[in-house]
Write a structure and sequence with these properties.
The complex is a heterodimer of chains A (311) and B (261). In chain A, the strands form 3 sheets. A 6-stranded mixed β-sheet of chain A has the order 6-7-8-3-9-10, with helices on both faces. In chain A, strands 2-1-4-5 form a 4-stranded antiparallel β-sheet. Chain A has a 4-stranded antiparallel β-sheet with strand order 12-13-11-14, covered by helices on one side. Chain A has 311 residues and is an alpha/beta fold. Chain A has 2 domains: 223 residues, 3-Layer(aba) Sandwich (Rossmann fold), CATH 3.40.50; 64 residues, Alpha-L RNA-binding motif (Alpha-Beta Plaits, 2-Layer Sandwich), CATH 3.30.70.1560. The longest helix of chain A has 16 residues. Chain A has 10 helices and 14 strands. With 261 residues, chain B is an all-alpha fold. Chain B has one domain. The longest helix of chain B has 31 residues. Chain B is elongated, with a radius of gyration of 19 Å. Classes of the chains: A alpha/beta (311), B mainly alpha (261). At the A-B interface, helix 2 and helix 3 of A face helix 1 and helix 5 of B.
């Protein structure tokens, strides 16, 4: 059974702006799914509609086969959502926020306490349970929203930019947590601006641009469509000129840093052999840009050149 | 298999919301419970002790005794309204209303939860104000059922009104306009301090268009056994307003007015 099925989802706001132009999307049970798109593409509107914070104009939504229009309560009981912006009372304690949310999902008090403790401990907030939410750091607030979304153990967890504004250490611990959660059977849908995050965590991906899905495939297939990758090489000795090669585009960033665009037909061994033949030793190397980022930018730029269907 | 939502789950969701509402106004009791007691004490000192003896008897009661039910009802009305309007608007403003909107809680329970919170504050403040009044005058309750029913129905009515106000409110000014320009004048002109028998027939007729007049008089009937309005008519008016506002609130919730874009 699919965790989520969206069919012909459209949204036109009161000011006439058509945010979604008929989205079809399927997320399989147990998937870790990325929904990407530039700002204003319709990601948050899509999530808003799934979680009933935004009224749809037309289309259908089914969560684990339950149509949201037909059985709103059952469909929502299987969903957990972590929104982009902080949305808890600034005056309540961490404990109150999580326990109350469990109550809104109908969990009896003893079970609510048990669940709240479990997730506050897992997310490293147990020691902060008596603190008012406004006193938490940005990273802690993000983790609090995850604990709150999980307290009723949803089968489908939707996270809208969950790691926005958190430091790299917290971000990495959140990635580990989410990966573990997914391994445990929870379906996860993620929107993010950190494409590295999507590449690392997600198995399937949809890219949304100006209210339309412009790509919906597996991460592996999407990355395979890259024609070339760009590497930055730190060389052992300063260079004055760049050696010319018909198949590698090379240019100097500074005297000891070289940028190389390597076509997918060639291996890195070919590049190193060529440089070695030129008497250039490579000390270290890194990807210039995240691969997914490159694809994403190309896709969105391509989309902007192509007229969008108006309906 | 999708989970089955039981009646018990709904009850837990409802009671969680009611507890949260009660905790909210209890946590800030200095702003919610204490001020009505101080205001009432001042009313009793000024209108009861200083001016009251010069006014004399009204419907056979000392002026202080006569105005006590109206003052209690005024506190119930103001506090039930303010509780819901400020709680719901605050939840919208801080966006934690989304905690409820994403949950499986039906609109009916969400509305009932906020209204129950408003009734709770109205009743608590009513009790505090009555206790304050007892420091200044004797209070007898002639008809217990009428007194309690009027308090609860009136608190429900103004909780519903506060709920609708908060749904439409977009900024803090919007939640103070109705209490300042509509609720306060209607309360003062609703027979709290006088009997409408003292007015000319024209103003008596105009006063009958003020719904608060029915609540104040029904409550006064419950406590003192006297009323300017037939008690049956008063109950019918209060119930009609409750039903109408309840239906309107549910309809607005279903359409997502002020909560869902």
């Amino acid at each position: 059974m699919n965790a989520l099925e969206l069919r012909g989802l459209k949204k036109t706001y009161g000011n006439g702006h058509q945010a979604l132009k008929g989205i079809d999307l399927t997320v399989a049970d147990g998937d870790f799914f990325a929904l990407l798109g530039p700002n204003g593409a319709g990601k948050s509107t899509t999530i808003g509609i799934i979680t009933s914070l935004v009224n749809k104009s037309s289309g259908t939504i089914a969560v684990y086969g339950v149509d949201v229009d037909e059985d709103f309560e059952t469909a929502k009981s299987m969903l957990g959502v972590v929104p982009q912006e902080f949305n808890f009372s600034q005056f309540e304690t961490v404990w109150e926020i999580v326990v109350n949310q469990a109550g809104f999902y109908g969990l009896p008090r003893a079970r609510a306490h048990q669940q709240a403790e479990k997730y506050l401990r897992l997310l490293g907030l147990w020691d902060k349970r008596k603190d008012r939410s406004r006193t938490l750091s940005g990273g802690m607030k993000r983790r609090l929203m995850i604990a709150r979304a999980l307290v009723h153990e949803p089968r489908l967890l939707i996270l809208d930019e969950p790691t926005a504004g958190v430091d790299i250490e917290v971000r990495r611990s959140m990635w580990d947590f989410l990966a573990e959660l997914n391994r445990g059977g929870t379906t996860v849908i993620l929107t993010t601006h950190y494409l590295e995050e999507a590449e690392l965590l997600c198995r399937n991906i949809a890219i949304i641009d100006r209210g339309c899905i412009v790509e919906n495939t597996t991460m592996k297939e999407l990355l395979a469509t890259l024609h070339a990758e760009t590497f930055v090489l730190d060389v052992g000795a300063p260079l004055l000129t760049v050696p010319a090669h018909p198949d590698f585009a090379l240019h100097l960033i500074d005297s000891t840093t070289l940028e190389a665009v390597v076509d997918r037909r060639y291996s890195l061994n070919d590049l190193f052999s060529f440089l070695s033949g030129q008497g250039i030793s490579v000390v270290s190397m890194r990807n210039k840009a995240n691969r997914l980022e490159e694809l994403f930018v190309n896709m969105v730029q391509e989309g902007q050149r192509t007229p969008q269907p108006q309906d | 298999m999708p989970p089955v939502i039981s009646a018990r789950s709904y009850f837990i969701a409802f009671s969680t919301l009611v507890n949260k509402e009660i905790s909210r106004f209890s946590r800030i009791w200095l702003q919610t419970i204490l001020p009505p007691a101080i205001t009432m004490a001042l009313y009793f000192v000024i209108f009861g002790n200083l001016i009251g003896p010069r006014i004399g008897k009204m419907h056979g009661f000392d002026y202080m005794q006569y105005i006590a039910p109206g003052l209690i009802m005024m506190s119930v009305i103001t506090n039930a309204y303010s509780n819901v309007v400020s709680s719901l608007f605050g939840a919208k403003f801080q966006r934690h209303i989304e905690e409820l909107l994403v949950s499986p809680m039906p609109n009916l329970l969400l509305l009932m939860g906020f209204v129950a919170g408003g009734i709770a504050r109205g009743v608590v403040v009513g009790v505090v104000v009555t206790a304050t009044a007892l420091c200044f005058t004797e209070i007898h309750v002639e008809h217990w059922f009428t007194t309690l029913a009027v308090v609860i129905l009136t608190a429900a009515l103004f909780s519903l009104a506060g709920f609708i106000n908060a749904l439409y409110a977009k900024k803090f000014d919007d939640i103070s306009i109705v209490p300042t320009f509509i609720l306060t004048p209607l309360t003062y002109l609703g027979g709290v301090f006088y009997s409408i028998d003292m007015l000319s027939s024209f103003w008596q007729t105009v006063s009958l268009g003020n719904p608060i007049l029915y609540m104040v008089n029904a409550f006064r009937y419950g406590m003192l056994g006297v009323s300017d309005i037939d008690i049956g008519v008063a109950f019918a008016v209060i119930l009609a307003f409750c039903v109408a506002l309840f239906a309107l609130s549910l309809w607005l919730l279903k359409r997502g007015v002020g909560l869902r874009t």
